């Protein structure tokens, strides 16, 4: 569920997948070959063109599509196909059955040190992979938060929602993200790069181990003030090495922030908090997960909240000129 879209469970039917009259899907064959086998169940992300245009999100949607097509990692969600009709854009994605890390965290309150390290290790591998992409620039994710980390049926994670992701050569100036997770350089409009992902990672580790984010206030402006002040107070239960890692990830000076130094993500993996975690075994999913979602079949959606169908219809062609709709011509 999002600002201008929603996600539905979808099934293969005959030679294609149809969720709405007039919708057709053209699969990315190279992508399917990489995935080895097409699943029978998908998550279908449906977005209204009118809302995308109204909110000036065309570039973000294009970035999301191109980046998802380019990546290949066990802890990042898979895109199988894209399509459109007169009023909507569709992305056919991997269905990650186990629900959100956010929901699990709210259920248990906070994670044990080893459990938090298990999830943080996978996210470290994801960030290192994205930041080391070459070609048209590295990929920055820019939206790390518990809601965007999902569990698969074995209890491993999948990062999803690449709507704010972007390829950059140096830095970008777009203001985007969740207030509690914004890095100081985003708030100060100094231009930002991959350092913002490591900052958000520090916030996420803190929240997983403490049960709440390090910077919180009733309004965004108050949150921004706390972030820029940079004072971090830890609950007594948080491991000493975890505290050290969080402080180094939440360095106000991005040039001194762990993950942004010469050794990049390798420096994060080498931190003492991760000592004893076998990253190779983690990558190949050979470690026992601390939590395995209880699911009943590959179509079980019980780990996710259900939302009623929208009662309004939105025909983008009636609200925008043909020149506006041309933005989706080659989607």
Keywords:
Transferase(Phosphotransferase), domain 1, 12 helices, globular, Phosphorylase Kinase, domain 1, two-stranded antiparallel sheet, single chain, 5-stranded antiparallel beta sheet, alpha+beta, 331 residues, 2 domains
Fold topology:
Elements: E1 5-11, E2 26-27, H1 29-35, E3 41-48, H2 49-54, H3 58-70, E4 79-84, E5 88-94, H4 101-108, H5 113-131, E6 138-140, E7 149-151, E8 157-159, E9 166-168, H6 184-187, H7 195-210, H8 220-229, H9 240-249, H10 264-269, H11 279-283, H12 322-325
Helix pairs in contact: 5-7, 7-9
Description of the structure:
With 331 residues, the chain is α+β, with helices and mostly antiparallel strands. The protein folds into two domains: 5-95 and 307-324, Phosphorylase Kinase, domain 1, CATH 3.30.200; 101-283, Transferase(Phosphotransferase) domain 1 (Transferase(Phosphotransferase), domain 1, Orthogonal Bundle), CATH 1.10.510. It contains twelve helices and nine strands. Strands 1-3-5-4-2 form a five-stranded antiparallel beta sheet. A two-stranded antiparallel ribbon has the order 6-9. Strand 4 and strand 5 form a beta hairpin. The radius of gyration is 20 Å and the shape is globular.
